[in-house]
Amino acid sequence: MLWSFYHIALLLGTILSGSYFFLNRSNPEYRKVNAIVFIILMSAILSETFWHLIPKTTDSKYVHYNLLFVYLKTLVMLGLFHQLPFSCQLQKRVLPTTAVFLGAGVIISLFVQPLETGVQSYTYLVGHGMILFFCIIFFKDILKQNRYQEVNLLSLPYFWIASWILFSFGESYIFFILSYSFPEIGTFGVGQTVHWVQFFAGLMYLSFGLAFYAPFIFSKNYSF
């Protein structure tokens, strides 16, 4: 497997996230979110490992990749939003949304895209669409919460995590739709677009690890 910026950023993000979890015990709120982020990063590492190590002729290659990248990653991402501070109590919608996602996954697996025949693009689009929805609502909500009116958002790990999820998932979501409408894009016909998708995904994973160090870098309150 050739190491790219994506793989290096993913590994660094995982190391930084794991280091924070084991070395910093002063903030239990961030530790819980950090644990979920660490699981997200580990699922990405495992999916990449299986994808490159399992022979292409093996049906289990797609099964492992779909279960780890399409399902587990999406489920843990939804779990992450369940832990974020919404004033509008949006957390209560995470479990029903998770049930809808799993139900859609079962239907797609049975009738449209079986697990073993390829990457489940439709399930991917459903799950990532749900994550983008929660991400957009989170930004709208956090800007309205009184508890964050005087807080420097750059000092909040939540802000960095949600920002990069919105940016990376939004960009890859658009690419996924375009690659099905214009197949030449998915086969590197337009400036090797997929490499940009991986590049921004790598930045997202790296930011996941760095986000929890933001309170040590940026002032908690605005200074005028």
UniProtKB/TrEMBL annotation:
Domain of life the protein comes from: Bacteria
Signal peptide limits: none
Keyword tags: Membrane, Transmembrane, Transmembrane helix
Listed transmembrane segments: 6-23, 35-53, 65-82, 94-115, 121-139, 151-176, 196-218
Protein name as annotated: Integral membrane protein
